[in-house]
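User: Sequence recovery, please. Input:
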C-alpha cells in the first residue's frame, strides 16, 4: 500500500487517524482542507463566507482530482462525497470510511476549539443529523474498507485499518 484516502463525516477523526497512519506506515500525510487553505490563501470558513459553498466544492473537487492517486495518506473534508464525480474518483482509489455515530461526532465537534467549520456553525443539531443521514450512503458506496470508530482509540483504529488493508 502506498496511497490511502480517508473519508467520513465531520468529527470522524480523519486528520488524527491520517497522521497516525502516516507515521506508522512512513508515508507522507496530506490534509486536503489544510492544502486548500494554503492554495486559496484563506481559511475554509472565510472562503465559504466570501465565495459560498458551491465555489468551495469546485476547488475541493479539483484538488481531489489532483491528489486521488498520489502516494501518501490523504485526509479529506467531510463533504467530499457530495459531488458525484468525486465519488467516482474515490471508487477507483484506495478509500477507508471512518464510521462514527452522529452523537459522538457532534460531541467531538463541540469540543474542537481549533477548527472553525462553517457548516457546524450554521446548522442546527437536527440539520446536522439530516446531513449525516444524507451523506452516509455516499461514504458507504465510495469506500472499499469501512471501519467503525465509535468508542475506539486512534491506535486501535489504525491497527484495524492496516489489518483490513492486508486482507484486501
Ligand atoms: C465540511 C467538512 C470540513 C471542511 C468544510 C466542509 C463538510 O472538513 O472541509 O468545513 O462539508 O462536511 P472536516 O470533515 O475535516 O471537518
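Assistant: Recovered sequence (168 residues):
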Amino acid at each position: 500500500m502506498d496511497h490511502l484516502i480517508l473519508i467520513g463525516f465531520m468529527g470522524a477523526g480523519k486528520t488524527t487517524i491520517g497522521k497516525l497512519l502516516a507515521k506508522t506506515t512512513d508515508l507522507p500525510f496530506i490534509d486536503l482542507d489544510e492544502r486548500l487553505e494554503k492554495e486559496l490563501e484563506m481559511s475554509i470558513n472565510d472562503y465559504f463566507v466570501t465565495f459560498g459553498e458551491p465555489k468551495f466544492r469546485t476547488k475541493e473537487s479539483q484538488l481531489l482530482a489532483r491528489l486521488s492517486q498520489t502516494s501518501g495518506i490523504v485526509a479529506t473534508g467531510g463533504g467530499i462525497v457530495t459531488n458525484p464525480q468525486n465519488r467516482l474518483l474515490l471508487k477507483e482509489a484506495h478509500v477507508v470510511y471512518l464510521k462514527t455515530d452522529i452523537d459522538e461526532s457532534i460531541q467531538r465537534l463541540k469540543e474542537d476549539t481549533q477548527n472553525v467549520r462553517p457548516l457546524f456553525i450554521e446548522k442546527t443539531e437536527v440539520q446536522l443529523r439530516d446531513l449525516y443521514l444524507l451523506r452516509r450512503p455516499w461514504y458507504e458506496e465510495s469506500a472499499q474498507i469501512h471501519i467503525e470508530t465509535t468508542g475506539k482509540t486512534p491506535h486501535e483504529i489504525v491497527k484495524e485499518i492496516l489489518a483490513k488493508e492486508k486482507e484486501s
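Residues 19 and 159 are 13 Å apart (CA to CA).
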